[in-house]
Every structure is written in C-alpha cells, then in structure tokens.
Amino acid sequence: MRKINSKDIDYIAMGSTVLGTGGGGDPYIGKLLAKAAINKYGDVSLIQAEELKDDALVVPIAAFGAPLILVEKLFSGDEFIKAFEMMESYLGRKIDAVMPAEAGGLNGVIPFSIAAQKQIPLVDADGMGRAFPRLEMVTFTLHDIPVSPITQADEKGNKNVYDTISNEWGELLVGATAIQMGGSCAIGCYPMSGAQVKKAAVHGIVSYAQMLGEAILNAKAQNRNPLDALIENAAAIKLFTGKVSNVTIKIDGRWNKGVCEIMGLDDNQGCNMQLDFQNEFLMAKIDGKPVAMTPDLIVLIDAENARPITAETIQYGARVVVLAMKSDDQWRTPEGIELAGPKKFGYTEKYVPIEELNKKE
C-alpha cells in the first residue's frame, strides 16, 4: 500500500491519457474532481490486488459515453457517488475498494474522488490496461465475470439499475439510456470479489500510468527529451512523424467515430498515415499497409511537448508522432483477440502484433 496525493494525480492523469489510446475522455474534469476530494478528505491508499481479502467487494466506477460530449456537457461529480451508493444499496453491503474500469483518460482518475470521499482504498488494477469503446471489452469478460448489476446515474438526478443477461446486453441497454441522458453518465459495474480481481484484472496499471506521466512531465527537469523518455518507459515503437492533414469526426450513438490523416515529415516524408478511431484509435496504416491494430495501443503524441492527444481534440496542422505499445498478454490470447481484435470492429485484417508488423528488415 502507498498513498496517492494531489501531485500524483497530475502524473496519473497524464499517463492515463497515454493509455487511453485517443479515447477515455479528457482527464481534466476527472483530475479536478480527484484533487478536490483528496484536498478535502485526505490522500488515497493505493493497494495491490494481492492485498485484498478474497471476500472483499471491489467495484469499478466509471464515466460512460462519447468523449466529444464532455467538451460541452460536464460532470457534476455527484453522479459518481450516486452510482457507488446505489451499488451498495442494491447488493446490501459496503464496498471495500474501488478500481478503474479502464486505465484510459478520464476513467483513470475518476475513481480517486470516490476513494477519497468514502475513505476506502483504490486497487492498482483495471479491466483493460488501456481504453476500449465497449463495456464488455474488459478482461473480466474473458474470465466470465458478469457486468451486472450495473448502476447508472446522470447529473440531472436520473438513476437506473440493470441486471442483464450478458455483458454485451449491458453495453446495449446502458448505452441506449446514456444517449437519452445526453450522451454521458456515471456507472458502477462488474462488482467482484477480491479473489476475482486477483485472477482477472490487469495488475499495476495505476502505477504504470503514474510512471509514464512522470516520464513526460519530469523529462525537461532531467535534461531529457520528453518524447524519448516516454518511448523508453513505455517500450513503445515509433511508427510515424508528420502533420495532421485532415480529420473527420462524428458522434455515432455514444461513440466518437472518425479518421485522422497525417502527412509524413522527416523520416516519413512522402508517406501518409491513416488512423481510424471509435473513441480509441483502432487501426494505423502507412500508405494503406497496417502498422498497428487493436488490441495493441496506438498513441497520438504532440511532437512539441510529448503530450498525448485524444481523438476529439485533434487539430488540423498539428505536428504529431504516432507510437504503438503492446497490449496486456490477456488481449493477445485467441479469446482476447476475438473480443477486442480487428474483426470485432469490422476490419478484414487478421490481428498481427506490432512487433511483427514493424520487424526490421
């Protein structure tokens, strides 16, 4: 166990945005909520999954919806507490710890505000090791852990509890209601025992996010290039350097869908990259040839300061670097590829790991 303070949240938010792979939402509002809660209630205890009792009750609390909506429709913060308290009420017992559902962006830091207010620990683990656009795309599904009960709350005071027949139905029903709530809401989901967290979660992800954030934000003080520091700490592959030449984006249901086109610069002069995204970046191609694909991580970085760029904030003319990072081993199993690989998003390409796609001649 170790304590997470307000300064640590800056690092975790930055690293979570890297792991968000273009999705997960801008962490700014989540960071403000987490810092306000820590300043009021005290530092948060971050514990390892192994420290949980097997019969402990652990619940991920998350924001749910289209990240582009959050540019104009902000969370109040109360909806996350409501989702938490509804879960305790429905299950008839106290929640012993919270955890992120995904490591990405906003959802990498939101649970800290709950942990601080409720004076309970936060588990250093999540269900993705990155961000994915669908509720069932978690390692918990790979271990047959049900998403239900799901608690849902919005900033207006609307509340729902779902008991669905499958994790896919959880996505369909909560997603449909989230649209009516204005495109975003707060949820509690995948209530688990400590034993299940130990078996099914991606471990150490909060600490990993913090390490990546520290690499970026502390690099200049260490006389290092922030991009080089990130690449080294993430064991990332540098795919492309260029300038954003076109971006199309639309809200489809509860997702941001679109394409980012990048004109090559420096070593990539004369080449073009295409990034497809559905909240998160799913496929990267150079001159039509895949160089990275889901479930591996594709990260868009501002070439000037090494800050990660979320899909809804891409700007024409921005100079960028595209990186690729290995996904957690659970996603590289046949079951993981079936759940979150290219075929799941309608691509005809068969999944090939980034290290194979980018093997040096």
What does the secondary structure layout of this molecule look like, with pairings?
Layout: E1 2-4, H1 6-19, H2 28-41, E2 44-47, E3 57-65, H3 78-91, E4 97-99, H4 110-118, E5 122-123, E6 125-126, H5 139-142, E7 150-153, E8 159-162, H6 167-180, E9 184-188, E10 192-193, H7 194-200, E11 202-203, H8 205-217, H9 226-234, E12 237-252, E13 255-264, E14 272-278, E15 280-286, E16 289-293, E17 297-302, E18 319-325, H10 334-340, H11 354-357
Parallel strand pairs: 2-5, 3-4
Antiparallel strand pairs: 1-2, 3-9, 3-10, 6-11, 7-8, 7-9, 12-13, 12-18, 13-14, 14-15, 15-16, 17-18
Helix pairs in contact: 1-2, 1-8, 2-4, 8-9
Question: How would you describe the overall organization of this protein?
Answer:
- This protein is an alpha+beta fold and 361 residues long.
- It folds into two domains: 2-205, 3-Layer(aba) Sandwich (CV3147-like fold); 236-357, CV3147-like, CATH 2.40.390.
- 30% of the residues lie in helices and 27% in strands.
- The protein is built from eleven helices and 18 strands.
- It has helices spanning 6-19, 28-41, 78-91, 110-118, 139-142, 167-180, 194-200, 205-217, 226-234, 334-340, 354-357; strands spanning 2-4, 44-47, 57-65, 97-99, 122-123, 125-126, 150-153, 159-162, 184-188, 192-193, 202-203, 237-252, 255-264, 272-278, 280-286, 289-293, 297-302, 319-325.
- The strands form four sheets. The chain has a seven-stranded antiparallel sheet with strand order 16-15-14-13-12-18-17. Strands 3, 4, 7, 8, 9 and 10 form a six-stranded mixed sheet that branches. It has a three-stranded mixed sheet with strand order 1-2-5.
- Helix 1 packs antiparallel against helix 2, helix 1 crosses helix 8 (205-217) and helix 2 (28-41) runs parallel beside helix 4 (110-118).
- The longest helix is centred in the first third of the chain and has 14 residues, at 6-19.
- The radius of gyration is 19 Å and the shape is globular.
- The mean pLDDT is 93.
- Residues 7-163 form the S-Me-THD N-terminal domain.
- This is DUF917 domain-containing protein.
- It holds the Pfam family S-Me-THD_N.
- It comes from Psychroserpens burtonensis.
- Residues 166-354 form the S-Me-THD-like C-terminal domain.
